[in-house]
Amino acid sequence: MTRVTHQMTQRTALANIQTNLKALNTLQSQASSQKRIEKPSDDPAGTAQALRLRSEQRAVAQYQRNLEDGVSWLTTLDTALTTTSSYLRRARDLVVRGANDGAMGPAQREAIATELEGLRGSLLSQANTTYLGRSVFAGTSNAGVAFDAADYSFQGTPGSSVERRVSAAVTVRVDGDGAAVFGEGNDSVFAMLDAIAADLRAGVNTSPFLTQIDARIDKVLTEASTVGARTNQMTATQEANASRRLSLGSDLASVEDVDLAETLVNVQAQEVAYQAALGAAAKALQPTLLDYLR
Fold first, then answer.
1. CA 66 → CA 76, 142, 221, 232, 252, distances in Å?
2. pLDDT digits over 159-190, tens only?
3. How far is CA 195 from CA 112, 152, 192, 209, 276, in A?
């Protein structure tokens, strides 16, 4: 038979009080922080899962920033292409008017030539459109402009493109091919408008340029349709990314967060258990030295 001493009873009672107090402290801490996992030892498997989910959240947040930046690039690019298309259509109308030799005198030809030169300058401005200091038609070049205003040479990096990663496996191009849209040097749309203006002043019929203008308009429209498709892709990815962010937040909450109502009930129950342990210990440990001296 095991001998039960007063010291053994005391140690057991104190251990039970300490156990109940520790459990109560844990529940109170969870209730105040509303987190089930406060340190890795609370749930090693849950901690690993939470770390993985947080890593995915950071990646999704970065993709979201890339998407927002990419959409801004594409919006700037689309605006430049739309404006370019309208300028080219206006230039075509002027060329058709200037080709009417019978109705055009020197003054009218000069007026059309002057307006074409103004359109040339406007087109050059659109070709050198920038977003946050970067040309949207120059690829990865940091030259600041896509075309030189003096000789219309392309200042961008040939064959390069600006891309934004929108998922682990997908990147989307956000810039435009300036050399393909506007041409280069003497083959550029700017040089063509200069040539048209010169022919108008010289009294040369400008109707042969209509084919070149139509070809350039087609290139602008082709690029614009490509930009529109990329913008739609970006927008759809943004929506999917937003849904993924919500899903990850929900998954993380299910791993880390506590059920507050349940935790409060458990706190109250543990307080009762703690008070009961104190009461039991008080009764069990009542004997004092005076009790033995009696």
1. 15, 20, 26, 15, 23
2. 899 999 999 999 999 999 999 999 999 999 99
3. 13, 13, 5, 9, 101
What is the tens place of the pLDDT at every residue in 96-120?
998 886 667 889 999 999 999 999 9
Is the C-alpha dihedral spanning 11, 13, 18, 23 positive or negative?
A: positive
Any idea what the Cα angle at residue 99 is, between residues 94 and 103, rounded to 5°? Answer: 95
* Lowest model confidence (mean pLDDT) among 66-75, 106-115, 250-259: 250-259
Give the number of residues written for the chain.
294
Domain boundaries, the chain: 51-252
Cβ–Cβ contacts within 10 Å for residue 227, how many? 25
Quick check: 84 pLDDT over 90?
yes
Predicted local confidence at residue 9, as pLDDT? 67
Give pLDDT, residue 267.
65
Give the strand pairing for 171-173 and 163-165.
antiparallel
Architecture in CATH of 51-252: Up-down Bundle (1.20)
Instruction: In whole angstroms, give the CA distance from residue 120 to residue 76.
Output: 20
Cα-Cα-Cα-Cα dihedral sign, residues 229, 231, 235, 237: positive
Rounded Cα distance between 64 and 62, Å, is: 5
Distance CA 101, CA 294 (A): 137
